[in-house]
Amino acid sequence: MKERQTRGRISQGQNGDPSQGDFLATLSSSARHKPLQEVPQLKPHRGRCGADKRKESTATLHIATYNTRTLALQEDLEQLQDQLKKFKWDIIGLCETKRKGEGLVELKDGSWLYEAGKTEESPETKGLAFLVHKNIKDYIEDFCKHSDRMISCKIKLQKESLQIIEIYAPTTDYDDTDIEIFYEELENSIDKKCKYTVIVGDFNAKMGRKETDEENEWIGSSGIGKRNERGERLIDFCTANRLCITNSFFEKPASQYWTWESPRGGYKNQIDFILTNDRSMFRNTEIITKVDIGSDHRMVRSTVCVNKKLMRLKRIKKRKPLKIDAPQLEKVTHTFQLNLQNRFEASRNEIPSIENLNDIITKSAMELTEKPTETEKDINEEDKIIEDLERRRKELRKKEIKTAIDRVEYTELNKTV
Predict the structure, then answer these.
(1) Are 283 and 59 in contact (CB under 8 A)?
(2) CATH number assigned to the domain with residue range 3-311, chosen from the 4 options 3.60.10.10, 3.65.10.10, 3.30.450.150, 2.60.40.3580
């Protein structure tokens, strides 16, 4: 059963700062996830994902997966966050977190933690999560829980979307029927509307090295060990869905392949993988050895270059200053707020999606905004309007934003000025 959570404002989580954040509809109530509150949104971050490099036509993302074995204690999560400062990352899929509750929280460092942990309905789940860097959280379209073994998130690109699925496959303690159910659910979780798909996680399957006479374009020649039956099933899944196992396409020293170590260190296997439907956008897939929180797994990270800018940058780049007469600014602003308020009142019992918010704001603005021919006088008046808008933005930033109208106005001012 899928449970979807779309982008919106999130609340203060157990580690959040009560002075900032966005709200999202929680998937289920939990003592670890407080009721959502309306709080102001800060100006979008520009980060390593490429959104601040306006002359470039690509977005670079660092996508990772890590079986933590446990993040049950707050100290475990803080230890992980501290070690993540040592290298670049944008989104990390986590499994076996053993945390309780479902929902989205903002952590002290500004990053997001979306987790699908233990609940009364799913007491046996091992726990999955996405850790989203503060620099790209403004580009996350939604989160979705597909089952106790897989969750996904979407990143909005220009005219396209990138779907990332984090999984935790059944171990050898489960029979083949459970494996078939898992892969069927995984295939159903792939959003065919998304141009780019990346599947990451602990597959509990040994792919092994590619045989010399093996002809399979979906796996490369790099790897360690021998393939087992679960590894064969993984490759069958990749072949059927035209997915590449990126770990196998980048030559590394032998010590840089294994992702799991037996309890006494007797043997090591490669069972954590990153799959994709478009290998051309992957620049590297590697083991990250700078993370050690007591897990018997090692983190796997891919560097991905998508030939699309992130959606947020496109909207800002194409946005033009409002062309209205300066004397009418006060009147138009007041009318604009009233129109927004009336539209929001009509759907006060619903949390609107980003698309609906954009539609409401755009329609209200188009009803009031005229587009006269630009002259030197118009340019001077536009400068004054921009100054007034900047002044209004500063006023909103200084005061406590409590209403939805103020929050929307502040967001629109950030986009316009």
Answers:
(1) no
(2) 3.60.10.10
